[in-house]
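Chapter review: from sequence to fold.
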Amino acid sequence: MAAEAPVDCSQLPNGDYANPDDPSSFYSCVWGQAHLRQCPKPLHFDPALRMCSWPKNAGAPAAESTV
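The token string follows.
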């Protein structure tokens, strides 16, 4: 049995919604079903724009660089 998504798409219109557990991913709600999507690295999901963006623009801290 699949784990329940933290976003309840049955109560939301179709669209993209932030994943409260991971800023680099988001949920696409399609006809009441949640589909987990990943932003390309190093982007984070920007809930205001409903798209992936640079972490500083998306309101999430950037991951620390190991370089």
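Two observations follow directly from the output. The radius of gyration is 13 Å. The first strand starts at residue 15 and ends at 18.
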